[in-house]
Write a structure and sequence with these properties.
Oligomer: single chain
Strand content: under 5%
Keywords: Membrane, Transmembrane, Transmembrane helix
Number of strands: 0
Shape: globular
Organism: Candidula unifasciata
Protein name: Nose resistant to fluoxetine protein 6
Order of helices and strands: HHHHHHHH
Radius of gyration: 21 Å
Transmembrane segments: 12-31, 43-64, 84-105, 117-139, 154-175
InterPro entries: O2_lipid_transport_reg
Structural class: mainly alpha
Largest sheet: none
Distance between the termini: 54 Å
Length: 190
Amino acid sequence: PGTLDYMSHYYFAPYCRIGPFVIGILAGYLLAVTKGRIHMKWFYVVTGWAVAIAVGLACVYGIHGDITKENVSTVQMAAFYNTVARSAWGACICWVIVACVTGYGGPVNALLSWSPFVFLGRLTYMSYLIHPTVIYVYTQNMDQLYYLNDTNMVITYLGILFFTNMAAFVLVLGFESPMIGLEKIFLSRH
């Protein structure tokens, strides 16, 4: 199986993302049912943050040995990582969200609630949504082989980054911001 088979059957397939999706739905349901009022003892809060940080770091750096080829994982360990990592990362993110909403976020909540991050959050999310299309348009319009070197990679990366963020900016201003305004109008009447 080639790279395209891997991408279509493992990376793009929606059922490969069902774990984090379900975890996010459950966290949202918990916050909706409790209206964001969950009282926890300090021990549980500290333990939750410690576990979330440790698991998050393990998700990010757990494949370092595989990437550098210094300490390649066994097949069983790689299977475990591929099975658990996305759901574990989703659980870590849900802990941050639940902790911040319920008042246990501390400096993390202060940082994430900073007003410039609101628009940047919308912009980066839109960039995340449209970047595969920008990459696809770029690669499918190439009429010759790509010479792979550091300079070409940097220029390509910066170009895709620039066009992705410009398109995201236009889409946020043209579609998302008006929809947020309409949502505020319609929801304020109830």
